[in-house]
Specification:
By secondary structure, the chain is α/β, with parallel strands linked by helices. Helices cover 32% and strands 16% of the residues. The protein has 18 helices and 16 strands.
Amino acid sequence: MGSISGFKNQKRNTEKRKPVNERVQNWQEIYVPWTKEEAKIQASRCMDCGVPFCNNGCPLGNLIPEFNDLVYKEDWESAYLRLSATNNFPEFTGRICPAPCEASCTLSINNDPVSIEMIEKNIIEKAWESGLVKPEPPKNRTGKKIAIIGSGPAGLAVAQQLNRAGHEITIYEKNEHPGGLLRFGIPEFKLEKAIVERRINLLAEEGINFECSVNAGIDITANELMEKYDSICLAGGSTVPRDLPIKGRDLEGVHFAMDFLSEQNRWNENPKDREITAKNKNVVIIGGGDTGADCLGTSIRQGAKSITQIEIMPEPPEGRSNDNPWPEWPMILRTSSAHEEGGDRQYSILTSEFSGTKSLEKLICEKVEWKKDKSGRYNMEKVDNSHFEIKSELVLLAMGFVHPLQEGLLSNLDVEFDERGNVKTDNNMMTNVSKVFSCGDMERGQSLVVHAIASGRSCAKNIDTFLQGSSNLPDVRGYYRKIN
């Protein structure tokens, strides 16, 4: 595969980020696109490794060595066809996926992995530029009608697949625009909304109907959905955020991260006074994951006075530990583009109180240690006399989500939930209610965009089989649906 010398002569590179002082002045994407030659050079690093673990590392089962070789050979059209055969939305995964494929790349054993994610992004962007991405409406319709609840990556994927099978698809979205977290949760500087709208417009051209500002279960009842459609797919995501119910939680200035991020995305489209702003404030972000980093980059662009990101877990190592070998996902310290831009990160910090009169003024925190017991399990212990304060007028809770909203549509449909509060399904992704299926974070729990797309593709095949008796839709290679 690729060049005969490949990674021996070429070092790993990614697209260059714009200078920090330039990019924090706007909401545009931060990367400078590769030329075709730069992409070709990076694709050349993928060689014939014998067993391409990257395929298994990718939940979609993308044929990564094959499209890398095609990019190296400058056959961009074939590369696009190979990539789009397994991935409905490479423009999303090529920007916001943490790239488990790269962690599984054979080069990762003792070298820097192939820049798979950005090669993928360049394949799809160059396909859009050259007019290769076109609507693919089905030649024939089956007459079957399917309602999909939620227009995030899982809902969009199941919709496109089932539409290709000839079914009539209606997507119900409670927000004013389709896209779910792609549209409202991911900051513009990571995923410009024109990229999302471009794909939505193409899906509409393929014949998919979008019903926005419709709260399924309220604006259209569960009974109406059951009567009107031959099948229903629940793809509404994991939307109930993890809270921090400590003293002072009700003070003004304590907000969930997603409320903060979605308001900014709406502001970018229609600038008006914000209800939640970081401007001239001391900001504390509780949570060390991607959402926390998104809050950091957004706070910097809003003009925060200071930003501190705290995490209750200990600081991860810079490299793999002995009990975290390749090709497992590396549990290491990650520095996002937002961390380059500013802010302070602190680990092993427990927040015990939000303090203030009517509005937030400070956090009361203490340090903790994580110690392993005889069974090998880590337990948290507070450090004696370690209390300290952090001045703050704005706290953003970025601690993830616990499960989907159960009240309303789900309870009215009388679907069962698993032990974690997600929609319970069988091996065919059907709930306990006949003809009602579920996929994505609503069924799996909070996860990655690539898992959501894979889940949607898998669910589409199951729904198609349920309606037709068999299905010609593709299987999803390498996708493990449940978390044990």
